[in-house]
Write the structure tokens for this entry.
Amino acid sequence: MFFLKRSADWGKAQAAMGKSKEILEERLDTFTTSSSGILVSPSSDQNGEQAKEEIERALLMVNFMGGRPWEVKLDSADNPHPWVITQANDLEALSDATRIAGEGLANAGVGSRVLAAVYPFVWKGIKIYWIYQPRIKVFTPFVPDNSEEGRDHPLELRMEKAIRSCLPTSRDVKQWFPVWGLPL
């Protein structure tokens, strides 16, 4: 089966997210929660705490750039995979913060271990997520339902169809991985 897929590297993908603000908010009535997260895997010789220390060092340069309309911090929860949390008041600033944090991680040698960038949104009172997967260079939708680790697949399909003109997405649902236990 043939699936169309438009892909984008880290910087272009985050820029596309920022530019999608008008479509998401005005056409789709979908609003950012003003935060995003970058999920990072520890290296094979690290535990979660050692990975957090490495990421904190990498983020020093990102946070050194003052005067920005956003905040970047390491999630303090005890997760086996550390999360970098970015916060900003609008989607464009949030996508810039996510891009710069990811580039900071890459410059510190952590970039290959970035598993995802996750953007939560609210649509009609439902929390929905766009997950950028650097491995396949596309965004995929994720909508948990009220059951334990259940998903709203019909809504995910509608989300992908509605946004594919402005975000690089994959129509191949086999690539749509959920991320459970989000700190967002």
The chain has a mean pLDDT of 87. Residues 51 and 170 are 30 Å apart (CA to CA). Helices lie at 10-19, 21-27, 48-64, 91-107, 153-163.
